[in-house]
Amino acid sequence: MTSPSASPHPAKRPLVVMKSVSKVFSSGTLALSDMSLTVESGEFISLLGPSGCGKSTALRIIAGLGDVSAGSIDWPSSRINSRGLPEGDISFVFQEPTLMPWQTVFGNVHLPLKLKGVSKAAARDDIMAALTTVGLKDFADAYPRELSGGMKMRVSIARALVTKPKLLLMDEPFAALDEITRQKLNDDVLKLWKDTGITVIFVTHSVFESAYLSNRIVVMKARPGRVHADFPLTTSLERGELYRSSEEYRQACEMVSKTLLDAMGGVEEH
Ligand SMILES: Nc1ncnc2c1ncn2[C@@H]1O[C@H](COP(=O)(O)OP(=O)(O)OP(=O)(O)O)[C@@H](O)[C@H]1O
Fold first, then answer.
1. Are 57 and 117 contained in the same domain?
2. What's the ipTM?
3. Could you tell me if 242 and 211 lie in one domain?
4. Is the pLDDT assigned to residue 4 strictly greater than 80?
5. Is the CA virtual torsion 61, 65, 71, 73 positive or negative?
6. Using an 8 Å Cβ cutoff, are 68 and 21 in contact?
7. For residue 28, is it within any domain?
8. CA–CA distance, 106 with 258 (Å, rounded to integer)
9. Which of 56, 60, 264 for a ligand 1 pocket mutation test, highest count of atoms within 8 Å of Cβ?
10. Are residues 160 and 173 in the same domain?
11. 58 Cα nearest atom in ligand 1
């Protein structure tokens, strides 16, 4: 029997809660100080801030690639493994695609599943599905040297998706690409986000990219990093070419740009 106080629609629990996190490196650098951030499932968050403010450090800590000096990272809606991490729920895409040159595209995307003991044969459907998602299903047998920079990054994204994570952490993934390729990949990531409902935290230096992609912007203060501003970014327009040339997008860019400048103490970076 259900208790009279139990709600038929229990409130959704956040995906990850970063509570008053500080990080001091062994060098003595205080990278983060009292940083708190609650991420809901299905959000697309862009994390911006002055160079060196701790964006990558925050992302790496969420991924379990570094420990906290104080505070905590909680996963209220996930099953936690012995390392305190939600097993299989997080994937990371770095700025460099870091592909194994001696492996084909298929072999590279297989890697995370191979590490879990899944054979190529058993992983085939998942690998091909991930490659289809990034538009590379016809390149499964190609080697990284045969691919363009954008294609290599797509392989890296497919490799991150093959484990079907709940959370995709992306650390300036498109910074090294030319503008047209970057815009194309922005559209691909948006489609992926819409189609799969995956949660994304995306570190970028680009005001334009953040305003185009995200439904929430988090701007960090200069080191030691913590949240300076956190606001939603809604639009009545479908994000695409029309949005890129719209007044709404221009205003969103202006707002993000002003907030970023404010976080830097009103002084432009050189
Ligand atoms: N492993 C490390 N050991 C010591 N200091 C580190 C380490 N990693 C980062 N730092 C320092 O911590 C601070 C935050 O670095 P982090 O890379 O997180 O900043 P960021 O905001 O991502 O920078 P950028 O925008 O330039 O990529 C910097 O001062 C950096 O030098």
1. no
2. 0.97
3. yes
4. no
5. positive
6. yes
7. no
8. 43
9. 56
10. no
11. 18
What's this model's pTM, rounded to 2 decimal places? 0.90
CA 25–ligand 1 middle distance (angstroms): 9
Helix (H, G, I), strand (E, B) or coil at 25: coil
Q: Are 253 and 208 in contact (CB under 8 A)?
A: yes
Domain boundary among 144, 164, 184: 164
192 and 256 co-located in one domain:
yes
Residue with tokens 């002055």: 50
Total count of domains within the chain: 2
Q: Which of 164, 193, 221 is the last residue of a domain?
A: 164
The protein residue whose alpha carbon is closest to atom 12 in ligand 1 is 31
What interhelical angle do 120-133 and 105-114 show, nearest 10? 120
Tens-place pLDDT, residues 112-167: 999 989 999 999 999 999 999 888 999 999 999 999 999 999 999 999 999 989 99
Alpha-carbon gap, residue 49 to 74, rounded angstroms: 23
Full residue range of the structural domain in which residue 85 is found: 33-89+165-264
The answer to whether the beta carbons of residues 22 and 70 sit under 8 Å apart is: yes
Q: Tell whether 232 and 145 lie within a shared domain.
A: no
Q: Measuring from atom 25 of ligand 1, which residue has the nearest CA?
A: 51
Do 151 and 205 belong to one domain?
no
